[in-house]
What we know:
The protein has helices at residues 8-14, 20-63, 98-107, 114-123, 143-151, 168-178, 183-190, 223-240, 248-261, 268-280, 288-295, 304-307, 332-339, 365-381; strands at 87-92, 133-138, 158-161, 214-217, 348-351, 359-362. It has 4 domains: 1-68; 87-151, Dna Ligase, domain 1, CATH 3.30.1490.480; 158-240, no CATH class; 255-381, no CATH class. It has a two-stranded antiparallel ribbon. With 384 residues, it is mostly helical. The radius of gyration is 39 Å and the shape is elongated.
Amino acid sequence: MTDLFEHPALRQAESPPPSRSRSSASRRAKAKRRRRRRQRTAVVMVVVLGLVGAGGYLLWDRLGDLAGDLPFLGSQAEDYPGPGGEPVQVVIPEGATGGQMATVLAEADVVASAEAFTQAFGENPAAAGIQPGTYQLLSQMKASDAVAALVKNEKVQTDVTIPEGYTVEQIVDRVASVTPITREELEAALDKPKKIGLPKSADGDAEGWLFPKTYSVQPGDGAVDLLSAMVKQTKTELQDAGVPESDWESTLIEASLVEREGKHDEDRPKIARAIENRLDSDMPLQIDASVAYGLGISGTELTRDDTRDPENPYNTYVHEGLPPGPIANPGAASIEATAAPADGDWLFWVTVNLESGETKFASTFGEHQQNVEELRAWEEENGY
Length: 384
């Protein structure tokens, strides 16, 4: 059989190889053409990327944080397999984007990475409905499970405790710091006294009417709900103490003085009686806490000039009778003490031990001066 292919030796004989110079020139020409093609491609890529970059910047500038909510196409973000470990409470801030939520959850170790949550957020159509508030999730959850849990909007009940003697300003600070209710929402509600249940005698001022105790803020509760509950509780306490509605405001004014002056509940009925005795005797009350309230300072900042200032309507050194309004929000013990003072002829009281709160009462100025000397001796001994 004859071979179908020519023998290599015959091909070489019939087609002699090109010379070295022609071969080198050909290779140089091909290389030059390749370089030109690469240069043209690079120029085109630079132009395209520049256009994309400029457009991308404008788009990013317009969309802002929304861009953080889009899934990272084609990337494999670090994620936990789930289902999760220990319970973790997280707070979703007002107006948070998916990217901001991702940061909160990643820092709390609820999800393995912000990227994993952001991807899961973008893939869940209901994620845009997640509400601000406190949620109980689990540590090390799968990101998609975390999104699904937040989508349910089953927020955790928050308890907020208001101590006796807090002012409205202090109450606003406390509520805003531990609940999803903001300071702005609280102040807006306080500007609508009828909506929160304040009686006409309060003259639109909630001071004294926000009863101090622990309140449970349920999911969905707002500022009006919480403040209304506080006012309602104050009315209940006044009714339970047998105070007629016509005396509610004056009782709260006196009770607020008792609250700020008394250190122990057993002393409060005596302080209430001493206040009543002074009022009956047309004596100025001379209560530092009231003067300080009117100036917006603490009692420790008071000066002698402050107690002589007639411009301060809460200055009980120069103005006889009760101050124009409560100076704090009194608790049940102070309201009860004011409604039913102890029997006695006391006109003076002074705390003689600032650590234990021991308070002594006197019927005469001479007795009172002896008690004041006892306080001075205690202060000197204890470096006050």
